[in-house]
Amino acid sequence: MSMNSEGRPTGLENVEATTTKFESYSGHQGLRLAEPLIYEIGSTELTGVDFEDLEEFDAQLGGVERQSEIGCAGLAEPDVMRHYTRLSRRNYGIDMGVFPLGSCTMKHNPRLNEKIARLPGFSNVHPLQPMSTVQGAIELMEELSTWLTRMTNMPVVALSPKAGAHGELCGVMAMRKAHEAKGDARSVVLCPESAHGTNPATAAFCGYKVKAIPAKDNGRVDMQALIASLDETVAAVMLTNPNTCGLFENEVRQIADAIHDNGSYFYCDGANFNAIAGKVCPGDLGVDAMHFNLHKTFSTPHGGGGPGSGPVVFSDRLKDYVPVPYIVNDAEGKFALKEWLEIEGDTSFGRLTAFHGQMGMYTRALTYMLSHGIDGIKQASEDAVLNANYVQASLKEDMSLAFDSYCMHECLFDDGFLKDTGVTTLDFAKAMIDEGYHPMTMYFPLVVHGAMLVEPTESESKYNLDQFIRSMKGLAAEAKSGNKQRFLAAPYHAPYARLDETLAARKPILRYENNES
Amino acid sequence: MRYLPLSDADRQDMLSTIGASNVDALFSDVPAEFLNAKIDLPTRKTELEVERHMSKLAAKNTAAGSVPFFVGAGAYHHHVPSSVDHLIQRGEFLTAYTPYQPEIAQGTLQVIFEFQTQVAQLTGMDVANASMYDGSTGCAEAIMMARRVTRKKKAILAGNLHPHYREVCLTQTQYTDDELVSQAANPSDPEAELQAVIDAIDDTTSCVLVQNPDVFGNVRDLTAVAEKAHAHKALLVAVFTEVVSLGALKSPGEMGADIVVGEGQSIGNGLNFGGPYVGLFATNQKYVRQMPGRLCGQTVDADGKRGFVLTLSTREQHIRREKATSNICTNSGLCALAFSIHMSLLGEKGIRQLAMVNHKKTLDLKTALNSIEGVEVLNKAFFNEITLRITGDATDVVEKLAKKDIIAGVPGGRLFPNAGLDDHILLAATECVTDDDIAALTAGLKEVL
To answer: Where would I find the Glycine cleavage system P-protein N-terminal domain in this sequence (chain B) (predicted)?
Structure first.
């Protein structure tokens, strides 16, 4: 047995058993702890919350008191702590490592934001308490509005949309309302093929027919095709810029002019604003409405799928059509929220959500903006673009680039380099898990075959990027050398092996059922 | 800049690898005239400076926990156990994305599966989705879903539905095929309001939306509405804004609801001045493929181990694009997690106790207010909300009480402008309300009336 400098054994040559798989009695595997469902460890008799004792009283519940069992399992507090702590350890989050999920934008989540959002003056105020008692909250919304409008050079913002797709709805509804106000009913919205799926879905929900616009070989929207499609039926064009191929639409100003000449509106999907924030103002490019993914660009937690926040900025052409509520100043200069449409003369298209939107996200986003400052936001955009181009340049010999030009904050590869290797895009992505990374976005955008969209963001250091690049080079070389084994059943080192998605869809089990009863 | 890990030397190194002379070269696709626009906004602040600035703003607001507080009407001040907030702040939950890679997202996925089960149990339905933005947007989704199921267009909105919910439904469906019919609010006679709903149902009806307890706090039995709806092949959409009420009341499923939609904020989530909240959405098994939003399903991994994945996404926008069931993309994942943790702490026993404590506080509140001259409590059956009719202008009274640091409730005119409810006040009492709070409100009301 070999010894280290302290005389302790280091070799494992006599301990072959460690490489043999065996089942433990508990189901645990060391620190990889098994965790049943709460229904298998808790009971309807257990609770982790104490309440004051109630004496008998006559309820006034109108004769519809609950008689039947609810069935919800309870756990005492220690077991709740363990249950969720154990579950959390099966998740990959941005705090663990590189999370290059293109178009989804996973960046550092400062804990200062969390602290500020939890100040009782923000977290514990009710949307319907008297406005005189929430002046700070409305002032915060006003300050956030100032940041968003100045960063875009657009005059007004609607804060209330609760997610990016909700923001799209807000923007397109305002456009429709504006057309109606002019007595100019139009029926078609143009969406490039590379658009997020929410864009055509949103247009359809606003009553429009959707017409797709193809992309050119260079990954940009085909401007000739777009202009040829513009006629008096076209209400709006929805464009993502920077687009989903990670490229800036360099003809954007000509596109905007053509849209406006046609009497149409220009919607910009702002999901990728984090590439240009502080560098380029969308208002200067002729945009009429653009949503922010506040939770992406300005770093609020993604929480496994939300909550999001999707404020929308509007141009002069649309500013009269924004939804309620919005901020007004009363005669004494105090802040108030206008919550209802007037009976006459109001052109707002309505209300998008019960209250004022995602205050918890506004707080975090503004905290982030103040921390960065406009200089820091500009630097962050530059670093995001620099990091993406660095990854692209470093890997372009190893993987196949979809478009050989500078990219914005994300770089796009296709599956060309995997041709004839027997390794698919999915296999390659799963092998990245074994390297300790969350895989990139796969199969999107649809215009590129076997797309792999890598977004490192400004949060990554050069050290992290170099390590990531080394892994990607290694995996690419291994796939090309014919070592399929490493990929076909990957991941080998994740908490779970590949999950059967077909089975889940064919025989949906969507809740726990106690099979013993 | 404390959040940016690149040094200037790194940047130079990386630029030379790329072969670009400077960073602006990377932005060469942006027409030069639009690049590096001058933007009039402040530069960076230290962590301490930011805290100071934001704390000042927060201090200008009156927080619910600091004064007697009785505001409800769609959002409720409840106590959230400390462990909930601690657990949702674990980085592996907080900073994870949509579970697109199930092998390394089983934490999120199992939580969603448990959440779906909890919501289905509470509502008395077969299945629930993985959450909506909030209760109001969930209502609009329910209307569109009922149209897909029934292939009929006319949705009837009960008069005592939360007026903001009604507005959201009207806004969101104004360009879809749905036709919405809204009825008049009736705070003093909830039975007549319900009967009006029943009378309005006919063969062209796709669904009826009825809130229970209604926005004025009245509890009612929806069974008769369900029967009439079903007789005309329409769906009953049961709506709630106070999820805690489900711990005390017969479930919407037991009353015959086909879709249940509501706000889950009360469990695990703070008031947050209106958001983020968590929309709950449940239905029966046969309608699962028409349900909007994300779903998590059970399956096995390649080793045969039970695991979970997002499923049935063929209904969603990323597959069906303009034919999608809904354009919803994000959900309220983290809020759903908070809900689920709080529910796991409560369990059946705890949610029943919590509900009864809420009801008892409200009963005490009602008794105290009824003793004041010039105040009439309208509700006979209620859960944790009641509506007063007062002699005087409610907005004025609420504002005067606010000056005394008592946050009394919502003036009827704020929720129902021009509806003749300017002398109504909507109040809620939760477990956070103390006997002293009730005494302070009572004394205050006597003074200002």
So the answer is: 1-442
